[in-house]
Design a protein that fits this description.
The chain folds into 2 domains: 2-159 and 298-383, no CATH class; 167-264, no CATH class. Helices cover 63% and strands 19% of the residues. It has helices at 2-62, 66-84, 86-103, 106-112, 117-157, 267-272, 276-289, 294-322, 331-356, 362-383; strands at residues 167-174, 177-185, 190-200, 203-216, 221-237, 240-255. It has a 6-stranded antiparallel sheet with strand order 1-2-3-4-5-6, with no helix packed on it. Strand 4 and strand 5 form a beta hairpin. The radius of gyration is 30 Å and the shape is elongated.
Length: 386
């Protein structure tokens, strides 16, 4: 009889323990996500209010349509800046509600009841995973679409329809083909003082010069004005080779080359509106052309994947430093969090500069801050109250 009661009590205790852990998971998940959504919504609302305060006179002066302000600017504003601050507010959220749990001795109760510290971490990491995956989808798919509308709105109403000031533009547009444009008008989609040459075996075999080139969007081609064209033909007579030069003049000529007006849009804007697949294809295309901006695009491509990983790192640090009850409340832990976040941002900036200047491989440079902070997170984890 005593053995039966012992088995029953053991069975009941095990089931109660499992139920308690499940309740604990739901409790932490709810607290974590709730605090995160509330805090980031609050800061976005504050940003929108201050941004609207600065831009309202311009909106009224330009008579900007209200539907464009709401749908094309501020609605696109939310995912862009929300995702930008998500790791920081993940950390703040963890510290805020975990410190309150520690202050109420909830962590002491959990640890005393035999729940391992690693088991307590599980709902934190699950929630961090939800936020990180959401950030990953935002970075690679949703935000580029949002930026397309947001940048178009800004260029229309703030930037007076952006026009490039780049001069002496060189682009590789094919195998051995080089395009030169002295200046380009983005609004008119017209280039001035244009030349195109083709090199084979270190010899110029084709040369074209025109006063201007106008983009024809109907068939995706260029219409050149006042064209001078020179080509070098190779002829064979027996064992002899000789070259014949042909010169032609045209009032206008239509050509198709691997170059469009979008290629002269500022590269920051082009980068921001490209999704995962578009930026990957663009990098390969620019590498073939010998573009000097390949490293910049590669850094951004890898950063979109590496950035969400910071959510896990900051979550572990946040739990480790705030699960211990301390005097003085959460002030010092929040200060520590802001300091660590500032260091993380500084490292991201420094290694991004190193990658874009060619001193480090883009993939390695982007992930180094995460590697360093993973070691920091592990140290805090070892020092956490268990």
């Amino acid at each position: 009889m005593a053995q039966r009661w012992e088995k029953f009590i053991t069975f009941a205790f095990d089931n109660i323990s499992r139920l308690t852990v499940k309740i604990l998971d739901k409790y932490i998940l709810k607290k974590f996500l709730g605090t995160f959504i509330y805090s980031i919504s609050l800061i976005l609302l504050i940003f929108i209010v201050f941004d609207l305060k600065d831009k309202l006179p311009g909106f009224l002066e330009d008579k900007t349509p209200l539907n464009e302000i709401i749908w094309d600017y501020y609605l696109m504003f939310i995912p862009v800046y929300g995702n930008m601050f998500s790791p920081l507010f993940t950390f703040i959220s963890v510290i805020f509600f975990t410190s309150r749990m520690a202050h109420r001795n909830e962590f002491v109760a959990m640890l005393s009841s035999g729940i391992p510290y690693n088991r307590i971490l599980r709902p934190y990491l699950i929630t961090a995973g939800i936020i990180a995956i959401s950030s990953l989808i935002l970075n690679h798919i949703i935000i580029p679409k949002a930026n397309r509308k947001k940048i178009a709105f800004e260029d229309k109403w703030f930037n007076n329809n952006y026009n490039t000031d780049e001069k002496n533009i060189h682009r590789i547009v094919g195998n051995g083909e080089v395009l030169y444009i002295y200046s380009f008008d983005n609004k008119a989609k017209m280039g001035y003082k244009v030349s195109l040459e083709k090199i084979e075996n270190n010899r110029q075999v084709y040369y074209l010069k025109a006063e201007a080139m106008q983009w024809d969007s109907t068939d995706k081609s260029w219409v050149l004005n006042s064209v001078f064209e020179r080509s070098l033909k190779t002829n064979f007579e027996g064992d002899s080779i000789y070259y014949k030069e042909e010169v032609k003049m045209y009032p206008s000529k239509k050509i198709k080359i691997d170059f469009t007006p979008d290629d002269l849009w500022r590269y920051e804007s082009k980068l921001e509106i490209m999704n995962y697949w578009e930026i990957k294809a663009y990098i390969e295309k620019e590498r073939v052309k010998g573009s000097s901006k390949v490293e910049y695009f590669e850094v951004e491509h890898h950063r979109r994947t590496a950035f969400p990983f910071a959510t896990f790192v900051l979550t572990i640090i946040g739990v480790s430093v705030s699960s211990r009850k301390v005097r003085g409340g959460v002030g010092w832990t929040i200060a520590l969090g802001l300091f660590l976040s500032a260091v993380y941002i500084m490292l991201m900036y420094v290694f991004t500069i190193l990658a874009t200047t060619g001193f480090a491989a883009p993939l390695l440079a982007v992930w180094i801050p995460n590697i360093i902070f993973s070691a920091v997170a592990y140290w805090f984890y070892l020092k956490a109250q268990k």
